């Protein structure tokens, strides 16, 4: 039986989003770097414009278990964040767990690739084995929290009391606990809320309604969304379900903590009679951002972007019509400490394509409604892709990905630049000394 919701230990803030290895602390940014068979915890210091592994061990090469910043398990669903004087990396259990030992895994997955180079996807034998070593650890390690001190002197692993897999999204923190849920915006699915103690990894089951998922956090509350029909949708299938969805609404509620009472913030049509559908894409700056799409038998077309204010419930257009047909929001769900998240949430980033890659970008200043097409491109990029916004510092600068050492690789080199100067087209970056592979 689910327990009652706890009283938040402090202001709730977002720590997780899909496939995004950054956390903005205002005076620095923590980043998980993806390596062949491990992940490396790094910190970008805004004052000194330097990036370094979160390790203070003299002479450390940062590529083995002896390094505090070294994490042996890789996962696209890992989450990095800070609370108090600690840096945490949440690692979920794999939804595709492996139950054998390394010798068995090696025979089944590594040896065939060593014998047949076409199975290695461009890797040499050593890289291929290293990659699978990291994958093996990820598929066998239980859910848990890596706990690092900010000085970079130590790392511990705290297993969770329940082996939560990567379908559970623990995306919010109050400084002492993580909050999240299992479920999707689909009222045929049973939802489950969770709370995880940062101190000892204890997992507490918490109550959510049928099809309800956590959308965002506020002061002493969580905001949830669910799909509501004129009759329970979980009882319908096929054409009956599709017909009911045209009458269904997305309902956003404020879930007060700790009493668990709900109050409706807003509702809007899931799919109206004209084939218009609103899809929630992410939250930042106290608003939920949605795409407005025209749905036909041939697919869907984005017409614009709308927002729902989580304080007032106002649902209104943000950008319609689009400046370019391929535009999509890329910055939704700001992962940052509370004050920093509010400042960063002012700027909404979009990406788009001129035809062959995501080479275009725009920035919308939601305070004045001005949309700026990003003219600055990645240095030396063969595709002339626009630079990438990562975060906003507490002193009013953008952290920008300005170059990719390997155009096809995951790593960026960064620069810092005044927000207004950037929006006016400046490339007068303060370069960040970054970690090289």
Question: What do these coordinates show?
Answer:
The protein has 5 helices and 30 strands. The chain has a 5-stranded antiparallel β-sheet with strand order 1-11-12-13-14, with no helix packed on it. The chain has helices at residues 102-115, 125-140, 238-245, 338-344, 419-423; strands at 13-14, 22-24, 28-34, 39-45, 50-53, 70-71, 79-83, 86-91, 144-149, 155-159, 168-173, 177-182, 192-197, 203-206, 213-218, 221-228, 249-256, 262-269, 276-284, 287-296, 299-309, 315-319, 328-329, 347-352, 360-365, 370-373, 388-392, 397-403, 413-418, 430-431. The chain is globular. It has 437 residues and is mainly beta. α1 packs antiparallel against α2.
SSE map:
Layout: E1 13-14, E2 22-24, E3 28-34, E4 39-45, E5 50-53, E6 70-71, E7 79-83, E8 86-91, H1 102-115, H2 125-140, E9 144-149, E10 155-159, E11 168-173, E12 177-182, E13 192-197, E14 203-206, E15 213-218, E16 221-228, H3 238-245, E17 249-256, E18 262-269, E19 276-284, E20 287-296, E21 299-309, E22 315-319, E23 328-329, H4 338-344, E24 347-352, E25 360-365, E26 370-373, E27 388-392, E28 397-403, E29 413-418, H5 419-423, E30 430-431
Antiparallel strand pairs: 1-11, 2-3, 3-4, 4-5, 4-6, 7-8, 8-9, 9-10, 11-12, 12-13, 13-14, 15-16, 16-17, 17-18, 19-20, 20-21, 21-22, 23-24, 24-25, 25-26, 27-28, 28-29, 29-30
Helix pairs in contact: 1-2
């Amino acid at each position: 039986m689910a327990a009652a919701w706890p009283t938040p230990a402090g202001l709730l803030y977002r720590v997780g989003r899909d496939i995004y290895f950054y956390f903005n602390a205002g005076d620095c940014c923590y980043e998980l770097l993806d390596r062949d068979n491990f992940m490396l915890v790094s910190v970008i210091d805004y004052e000194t414009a330097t990036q370094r592994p979160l390790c203070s061990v003299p002479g450390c090469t940062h590529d083995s278990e002896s390094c505090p910043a070294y994490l042996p398990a890789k996962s696209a669903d890992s989450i990095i964040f800070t609370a108090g004087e600690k840096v945490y990396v949440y690692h979920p259990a794999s939804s595709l767990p492996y139950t054998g030992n390394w010798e068995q895994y090696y025979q089944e997955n590594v040896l065939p690739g060593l014998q047949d180079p076409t199975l290695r996807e461009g890797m040499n034998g050593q890289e291929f084995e290293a990659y699978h070593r990291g994958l093996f650890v990820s598929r066998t390690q239980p859910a848990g929290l890596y706990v690092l001190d900010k000085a970079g002197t130590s790392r511990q692993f705290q297993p969770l009391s329940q082996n939560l897999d990567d379908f559970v999204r623990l995306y919010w923190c109050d400084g002492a606990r993580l909050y999240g849920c299992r479920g999707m915006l689909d009222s045929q699915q049973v939802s489950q809320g969770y709370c995880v103690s940062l101190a000892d990894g204890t997992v507490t089951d918490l109550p959510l309604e049928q099809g309800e998922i956590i959308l965002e956090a506020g002061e002493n509350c969580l905001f949830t969304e669910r799909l509501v029909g004129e009759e329970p949708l979980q009882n319908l299938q096929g054409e009956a379900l599709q017909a009911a969805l045209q009458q269904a609404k997305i309902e956003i509620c404020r879930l007060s903590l700790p009493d668990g009472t709900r109050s409706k913030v807003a509702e809007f049509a899931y799919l109206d009679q004209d084939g218009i559908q609103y899809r929630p894409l992410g939250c930042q700056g106290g608003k939920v951002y949605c795409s407005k799409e025209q749905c036909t038998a041939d697919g869907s077309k984005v017409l614009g972007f709308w927002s729902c204010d989580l304080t007032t419930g106002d649902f209104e257009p943000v950008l319609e019509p689009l400046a370019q047909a391929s535009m999509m929001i890329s910055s939704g769900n700001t992962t940052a400490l509370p004050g920093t998240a509010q400042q960063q949430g002012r700027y909404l980033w979009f990406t788009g394509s001129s035809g062959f890659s995501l080479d275009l970008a725009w920035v919308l200043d939601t305070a004045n409604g001005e949309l700026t097409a990003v003219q600055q491109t990645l240095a030396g990029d063969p595709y002339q892709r626009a630079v990438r916004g990562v975060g906003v510092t507490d002193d009013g600068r953008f952290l920008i990905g300005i170059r990719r050492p390997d155009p096809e690789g995951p790593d960026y080199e960064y620069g810092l630049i005044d927000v207004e100067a950037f929006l006016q087209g400046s490339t007068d970056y303060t370069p960040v000394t970054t970690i090289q592979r």
